Automatic annotation (TrEMBL), chain A:
<dbReference type="InterPro" id="IPR041916">
    <property type="entry name" value="Anti_sigma_zinc_sf"/>
</dbReference>
<feature type="transmembrane region" description="Helical">
    <location>
        <begin position="107"/>
        <end position="126"/>
    </location>
</feature>
<feature type="region of interest" description="Disordered">
    <location>
        <begin position="76"/>
        <end position="95"/>
    </location>
</feature>
<keyword id="KW-0472">Membrane</keyword>
<keyword id="KW-0812">Transmembrane</keyword>
<keyword id="KW-1133">Transmembrane helix</keyword>
<protein>
    <recommendedName>
        <fullName>Zinc-finger domain-containing protein</fullName>
    </recommendedName>
</protein>
<keyword id="KW-0805">Transcription regulation</keyword>
<keyword id="KW-0804">Transcription</keyword>
From TrEMBL, chain B:
<keyword id="KW-0731">Sigma factor</keyword>
<protein>
    <submittedName>
        <fullName>RNA polymerase subunit sigma-70</fullName>
    </submittedName>
</protein>
<dbReference type="InterPro" id="IPR013249">
    <property type="entry name" value="RNA_pol_sigma70_r4_t2"/>
</dbReference>
<dbReference type="InterPro" id="IPR013325">
    <property type="entry name" value="RNA_pol_sigma_r2"/>
</dbReference>
<dbReference type="GO" id="GO:0003677">
    <property type="term" value="F:DNA binding"/>
</dbReference>
<dbReference type="InterPro" id="IPR014284">
    <property type="entry name" value="RNA_pol_sigma-70_dom"/>
</dbReference>
<dbReference type="InterPro" id="IPR013324">
    <property type="entry name" value="RNA_pol_sigma_r3/r4-like"/>
</dbReference>
<dbReference type="InterPro" id="IPR039425">
    <property type="entry name" value="RNA_pol_sigma-70-like"/>
</dbReference>
<feature type="domain" description="RNA polymerase sigma-70 region 2">
    <location>
        <begin position="28"/>
        <end position="95"/>
    </location>
</feature>
């Protein structure tokens, strides 16, 4: 996709209604074109603004208690790796490096890596665009894995998450999205390469993307059927393996 | 002692959901339920289904409270976007056509309604409302179908009985015009 085509379809992308194949092409273009990315960012405000115009409505009697009861009995409890900001002290939220890192990972873990990968704001586009792959949780056919730094494998800490979405029903490419944060210890600036690993041991170069201070996120169309994928590897410009991932069944519902 | 829950900022209340405190959950739901349910019922039309969508919205917000990133928008915008997404999915699972013609007309009227009380306001929502109101009717319809009902250009074309290219043009023109009007007002 070139800039002219992107400008034609930018509104549909911003409103989250572009069909899967065109969306993947558009996102790949945005990944390498800051001007078009800025263009689509501006348009996302329209979709957000439309939702804000919908009038509020009072839900049926008992809604509040039903929701709270459902929260209390839902099978997946929220995790809180850091102390949550206590409502009693809202003026002093703990927004340190660790919290920021963790937020980034939770974003990925909740399946919104796609929105991050697009690199533009706006909740509407962020959530609607990812609607083809499900919104908050990866679907059963989406592969998901932790990116583990070889130097950190021992302490079990992730340095990112990676998702491999299957091709759509029309036979378009699948996508791979990832979010990486190497943390304070290994602040890396510059491009990193992503290699996909097949179950037969072969590797497929997917592309490269920049990390800034060890942090970055990226999405790209993938020529590899997730059914044959076994993992992925992130490699620095000097050949150092920064992180590896081994795909298993999705862990987030 | 802290603030009463009614006065706790939105972001702090959302963070507090992770504590599992039912009082915080009640305060959170109470604060946002009208917005969430409003989006749900506008998109799905059916109150019972809208209630399900709204409930799922809060459950997801609760499960992923830590996901929220204030740099990307307000808590209310985040919740309404989740509700919007779920509502579109719910409609698609049940109906071939996402909207009835009369419902579309009603909603176009709502989002472009500019009585004096709206015209005097100068918040972001009212600027969007004025911009939508300034669109040719067919572009406003296309924008509502795409932006609220989540209809693709192909679906808009089928609904309106127009060529696909015309539907795409209406969606694009409506979006760009609204954005341009908003930017013009923002720079005043």
């Amino acid at each position: 996709m070139d800039c002219e085509r992107l400008r034609e379809e930018g509104a549909e992308l911003a409103l989250g209604i572009l069909p899967a194949r065109e969306r993947a092409e558009a996102v790949a273009h945005l990944d390498r074109c800051p001007d078009c990315r800025a263009y689509v960012e501006r348009l996302t405000a329209v979709g957000d603004g439309l939702l804000a115009l919908l009038p509020g409505a009072e839900p049926p009697v008992g809604f509040e208690s039903r929701v709270v009861r459902a929260m209390a009995t839902a099978p997946t409890a929220p995790t809180a790796p850091t102390a949550p900001t206590a409502p009693a002290a809202p003026a002093a939220p703990a927004v340190g490096r660790h919290r920021t890192r963790w937020r980034r990972f939770r974003l990925a873990a909740a399946g919104v890596a796609a929105a991050l990968a697009f690199g533009f704001g706006g909740w509407a586009v962020g959530t609607v665009v990812e609607g083809a792959p499900p919104v908050v949780a990866p679907g059963p056919h989406v592969l998901e894995a932790a990116l583990i730094s070889p130097e950190r494998a021992g302490d079990g800490r992730e340095v990112g998450r990676i998702y491999a979405h299957p091709a759509d029903a029309e036979g378009g490419n699948g996508w791979v999205y990832m979010s990486v944060d190497l943390g304070d210890v290994r602040a890396v600036d510059g491009p990193v390469r992503c290699l996909l690993l097949r179950a037969d041991g072969s590797t497929v170069p997917l592309g490269s993307f920049p990390l800034r201070a060890g942090y970055g996120y990226w999405g790209a169309p993938s020529p590899v059927d997730p059914g044959t994928l076994s993992g992925a590897r992130l490699v620095a410009a000097n050949g150092t393996v920064l992180a590896t991932a081994h795909f298993t069944t999705p862990e987030v519902n | 002692m802290g603030l009463p829950l009614e006065r706790v900022p939105d972001e702090a209340l959302l963070s507090g959901l992770a504590t599992g405190d039912p009082e915080i959950a009640v305060a959170f739901v109470r604060r946002f339920q009208r917005s969430v349910y409003g989006v749900a019922v506008a998109v799905v039309g059916d109150p019972r289904l809208a209630e399900d969508v709204a409930q799922q919205t809060f459950e997801r917000a609760w499960r992923h409270a830590q996901v929220y990133d204030g740099r990307r928008g307000s808590v209310r915008a985040w919740l309404t976007a989740i509700a919007h997404n779920l509502a579109i999915d719910a409609v698609r699972a049940r109906r071939a056509v996402p909207v009835a013609p009369e419902d579309l007309e009603t909603l176009v009227g709502i989002v472009s309604e500019t009585p004096e009380r709206h015209a005097l306001a100068d918040d972001a929502a009212e600027r969007v409302r004025r911009a939508v109101a300034a669109l040719p009717r067919e572009q406003a319809r296309a924008l509502v179908m795409a932006g609220i009902y989540g209809m693709t250009a192909r679906e808009v074309a089928a609904f309106e009985g127009i060529p696909l290219g015309t539907a795409k043009t209406r969606i694009r023109a409506g979006t760009i015009k609204v954005r341009a009007l908003l930017e013009r007002e923002e720079t005043r």
